[in-house]
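New to this. Look over this protein:
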Amino acid sequence: MQQPPPALYSPLSNHLMWLTTIFISVAQLLFVGIELYMLNKGFSIWDEGYYLLSYKMAQAGFYQHFTNTPFVVATLFEWFHPGIVAYRLIHLMANLFAAIFFTYVLILYLGALRISCNRKEQGLLYLLATYAALYSYQLAVPTLSYNHLNGFFILIAQAALMTAMLRQSLDKTTFVYLLLASCATAILVLIKPPSFVALAFLNIVLVILFFRSKLAAKYVFIYILGVFAALLVSLVLFLTPAQWLSYLSFMQERKTHTPYAVLKSFLTTGFEALSAGGG
């Protein structure tokens, strides 16, 4: 009698599942305990001081830098004058919230693809996601930085878009989620432009592959329209026209950071990496 072919997916054994869960849980508790203990202790004048000063300078006027993250942070938070401790808490809570939200939607998305997870596996996914969120850039910079915001908005955009896709209808709730995904994508222009380009492109591909129908075109159209609308709003919300002119002039003086130079460097580096890997 012929044996059935091996399954493409085999769940983790109970022993391995429990060992992994215990290890990650202990690591998380240890790290969170250290974070809370160090919340009002220590200060890095180089890294943390740099970010905190940039937010204050952005609130006071123009801060010349290659990223406009200080203006985003100043607009969102500086109005209530957070200090060192508050920014550390904002960073920690934002990382955890985005990771939990994304994992929740990911489990629903896997279910839609008929990849079911039992409660133990779902719990492990949450633990892995929050574990990654806790350790992401956390050891180097305890305060809020452009890398933390970049990761936060990517996860929010992905989770919101997948939630809209899972609804498979264009009702009001779906529009809200698509708008949230568009806004979270658009704000990356000010934080990390390459992330904006990559995320927008990949999201469009994700929608097309998920639906494979005319509904995909409607989703993509609303998403792109929302991104452009959010871009226009962000240009006015976070910087004044005078500040934009100063920023463009500043970037023009740095020839290595013009859009063409950055694109050329990106493609050249990518080609060299592929060549090295192929060799």
Observations:
- The chain has twelve helices and no strands.
- The longest helix spans residues 84-112.
- Confidence is low (pLDDT under 50) at residues 4-9.
